[in-house]
Design a protein that fits this description.
Length: 300
């Protein structure tokens, strides 16, 4: 079992697997309050104590649904870590003032977004707030002022980014501390392993978070998926056939950056299966065999 990990020093301590709630609401399984409460309890029982949100999920409705579920047993807040993201403006009926999809990193908008998330999630503080996407109009000093305000008020404990390139992260790090970069990463999306993203995390002592950690594997029917499936099956035999999803997660967990996969499922059985990845330690050879299968060629 992999122990919880501190994202950076200083930084929050998170579970090695993170429950991503994007599909818990109307963008996916549309769980009702009791079902969502039961899912929270199930995650906690597995040692998955970190929950990943964004204000836009469910067209700005999923945070509130989660908060209502959490309110059924508010003491659970002390057993968990809450992450949310802000900075994207979606065009939808819940936000009639948004006339075009855009990024908004103004101080006032970040503060207002964080405070609304606090109300929706029924909590007094956020363990981690992420800027959801980098903007070409971002002014680092203004973002830093917003974070300083929220930290001074005790409303946000730590700050990070999502989907930032290494240069964008460096730009913002000049004016405010960052504890993580949450990016898309999987065996079927290996860009962060080669574009400097994870190298930078290693250099900074910062553990990244990975969204879509299965890379849509179960929704693909192509030559790449076929090669990967064969290799997953072969390697799975060495580890008592835990399932392709478990090996895919173990592949991410093997990286020295100590990546935290964000699980996108809303099914208790799949969450239980995912937790098995914490018990599997792939070899370096296993890792490269899977990489070769995904890329279709040996490493240079």
């Amino acid at each position: 079992m992999l122990a919880p990990i501190r994202l950076s020093s200083p930084g929050p301590v998170f579970s090695r697997l993170v429950a991503g709630v994007m599909t818990w609401g109307v963008w996916g399984h549309d769980l009702d309050i009791k079902e969502m409460s039961a899912m929270i309890d199930h995650c906690l029982s597995l040692g998955i104590t970190t929950f990943d949100h964004a204000d836009i999920y469910g067209h700005y409705t999923t945070e509130e649904a989660f908060g209502n579920a959490l309110a059924l047993q508010p003491r659970r807040r002390h057993e968990m870590q809450l992450v949310t993201k802000c900075g994207i403006r979606l065009v939808c009926k819940e936000r009639p003032e948004n006339v075009v999809k855009a990024y908004d990193h103004r101080k006032e908008y970040i503060i207002a977004s964080a405070e609304r998330s606090l109300r929706n999630l029924r909590t007094d503080y956020l363990d981690l707030l992420l800027i959801h996407r980098p903007s070409p109009l971002m002014q680092a000093d203004e973002v830093a002022e917003a974070i300083a305000h929220l930290k001074a008020a005790g409303k946000v404990q730590h700050f990070g980014v999502s989907n930032f390139t290494p240069s964008q992260l460096d730009y913002l790090r000049q004016v405010t501390p960052l504890v993580t970069n949450q990016v898309e990463a999987s065996l079927l999306h290996t860009a962060p392993f080669f574009d400097g993203t994870f190298d930078q995390c290693l250099q900074l002592g910062m553990h990244p978070m990975a969204w879509s950690p299965l890379g849509g594997f179960f929704n693909r029917d192509d030559e790449t998926a076929s090669r990967v499936a064969d290799q997953l099956d072969e390697i799975g035999h060495k580890y008592r056939n835990p399932g392709a999803d478990v090996i895919l997660l173990a592949w991410l967990l093997h990286h020295p950056a100590e990546i935290l996969p964000v699980l996108g499922t809303a099914r208790p059985s799949r969450m239980t299966a995912a937790a098995q990845a914490l018990e599997i330690s792939l070899t370096d050879l296993d890792w490269f065999e899977l990489l070769e299968a995904a890329r279709g060629h040996e490493v240079a």
